[in-house]
Amino acid sequence: TAYKETVTGLKCLGTVWAGHVSTEFKRRYYKNWKGSAQKAFSNYRAFRNTKEGKAAEAATYSKFEKKAAVVRVIAHTQQRKLRNHRVQTKKAFVQEVQINGGSIKEKIALGKSLL
After folding, report:
1. Long-range CB contacts (< 8 A, 24+ apart) of 20-25?
2. What is the rounded CA–CA span in Å between residue 70 and residue 12?
3. Residue 85: pLDDT over 70
4. How far is 55 from 108, CA to CA, in rounded Å?
5. What is the SS3 string spanning 65-104?
6. What is the value of pTM for the model shown?
């Protein structure tokens, strides 16, 4: 996710999601995981693998390089690695982590490598 600075604060320029979104992260988008169709991010994944999807992603990255002031990565916990009696949930805890240091291009390159 990249943001530009405005007079009233940060404005989101867009978000690029990873091609592989874990089940724990998808669970966070549903109130009832078992009763749902569990289709979150399936359309995005199909679109991302097409020619138009790759062009749209490249356009988004170029927009980030031109206009962004802040670059952040959306991260989540890996609950399957913490499975013990103290962890009561299978849903991942999601947070946004800001990338600091270097130029905007370096920040975007680091964010891409994490995806």
Report:
1. 21/45, 22/76, 22/78, 22/92, 24/76, 24/77, 24/78, 24/79, 24/80, 24/90, 24/91, 24/92, 25/76, 25/92, 25/94
2. 9
3. no
4. 17
5. HHHCCEEEEEEECCHHHHCCCCCCCCCCCEEEEEECCCCH
6. 0.82
